[in-house]
Amino acid sequence: MLGIVPKLYEDELFYSWLCRYYVAKGFTSNSHFIEEVTGNNRLYLNKEFVPPFKAEFRHDIEKIFGFENVIRNHTLYGQEARFYTEEEINNVWELLQTDSFDIRTLFRMQKSKEGHSLSYCPLCVKEERESIGECYWHKSHQIQGIDICLKHRCKLKESEIRVGSKHNDMISPAEWWCNDSEIEMVENTHCLKYYNYVWEIANAPCNGMDAKKIIALLYKKLKEKGYRTLGQRLLGIMSEDMEQYYEEMGVSYEMCYSTLQTIFAKYNYPFIAIIQTAYFLGVTAEELLNPVVSDFDIADEECSHYVSDRNNTNINRDLMDRNYLKSVKRECELIYSGHYHAKGRPMKVSALKVCKRVGITHTLIKFMPLCKACIDEYAETDDEYHARIIVWAYRKLKAEKTDGKIIRVSEIHKLTSEWKENIIRALPYMAKFVDQEMINEIDALAREKHWHRNLVD
Ligand SMILES: [Zn+2]
């Protein structure tokens, strides 16, 4: 029963159409209009979405434009629900069918977010006034993180119209509020690349994503970019780097350390925070929209919550155990053989050292029997360890002295910090590492009066 209605333009916010409908039908009172559309004259109107329409109005909207088309293409649905799971998306659509949803709770919006203004492109305004006789509010000019009109590559202007205002500017057609303002072009190719990235993500089909996969993907990238080392996430450093990165690029950036923590703690998935993190970490739009990660990557990320979430039994520890075994073996070997020591001296293998190297919390190891068994194989007493490094030092010196020069106890001390008494005490434990002949040589060296011995005799 709407009669002849204005056309809904491409990329037009549905709110913008409502405003033009208001003018076309000759309404003069905001509250009458809201009553007509929703059946409730006290209703709050968020300009980036639709209000809960009353049944007749909604029926007409469905017939003329298609309700789903309106939501998907003429509101910021694709931004707000971007990283929702399939279940959350279904919930949103179910609520949208009712006549009493509150858009703020529907999309978990924070009040402060409604404080921003509707933006417009001065060149779009000019063109539209010339070609169709009026301008309108664009959806693409309201996307968080995009400060330019991607069609004209000029900076967007902020209008005086607040997105969440309840006051008498509730019905504010663009035609009344957009001025001819100064035009500022943006030529920086890096900026343009970033804006197109945000746009591509905001406009992709939005039917629910696997949040676990997104976070696992970002977590994996942390490691590749060096923001995760020896089992620690370096989010503080990353936060500073990100701030500098976006500041240098000259785009709006409001994230802070705690937002970054929030992403990785899975409390929620704020649109622009996820996108800026992903872009910074070198995740392509395609990768972010269709994250490809293994079960191991997911378990690996979940495992990073272990310390703060000891009761988390969702971690697939069995999978972790099998997947980490290879690297645990490798690290045990490298630590044991002295690979990480400045002088190449063999080191004692401990769960703490191995876990740090591999990048898992060492408290987790007790739930990983295969890895634990592997580390346990390297267990040794202090006496055995002393014997092992003395043998190592003796062999090393012997191999170096091809010219037949004598080995001195002081040289062994330099490599191992062990003195004569310790060498003698370690003798009974050397059989595990070396034959009797060499034990005798070491014995003789330690007991010799002047602590040296000619090797060639
Ligand atoms: Zn434009």
Keywords:
mainly alpha, 457 residues, elongated, disordered C terminus, binds zinc ion
How would you characterize the overall build of this protein?
The protein has about 450 residues and is mainly alpha-helical. It has four domains: about 15-175, no CATH class; about 210-295, no CATH class; about 295-380, no CATH class; about 380-455, no CATH class. The chain contains 23 helices and eight strands. The strands form four sheets. The chain has a two-stranded antiparallel sheet with strand order 1-4. It has a two-stranded antiparallel sheet with strand order 2-3. Strands 5-6 form a two-stranded antiparallel ribbon. Strand 5 and strand 6 form a beta hairpin. Mean pLDDT is about 85; it is low at about 450-455.
What's the structural blueprint in terms of helices and strands?
Blueprint: H1 14-24, H2 30-38, H3 55-64, H4 67-74, H5 77-80, H6 86-96, H7 103-106, E1 117-120, H8 122-131, E2 148-149, E3 154-155, E4 157-162, H9 174-177, H10 189-202, H11 211-224, E5 228-229, E6 232-233, H12 235-249, H13 257-265, H14 271-280, H15 285-289, H16 295-303, H17 317-337, H18 351-358, H19 369-376, H20 382-400, E7 407-408, H21 409-416, H22 420-426, H23 436-447, E8 452-453
Antiparallel strand pairs: 1-4, 2-3, 5-6, 7-8
The structure holds zinc ion (ZN).
Zinc ion is lined by residues 121, 123-124, 149, 151-152.
Class by alpha and beta content: mainly alpha
Helix content: 40-55%
Largest sheet: 2 strands, antiparallel
Question: What's the domain count?
Answer: 4
| Overall pLDDT level | 86
- Specify the number of helices: 23
User: In angstroms, what separates the terminal alpha carbons?
Assistant: 114 Å
Low-confidence sequence ranges: 451-457
Spell out which ligands are present: zinc ion
How would you describe the shape? elongated
Gyration radius (Cα, Å) is 34 Å
Number of strands: 8
- Content of β-strand: under 5%
Strand order of the largest sheet: 1-4
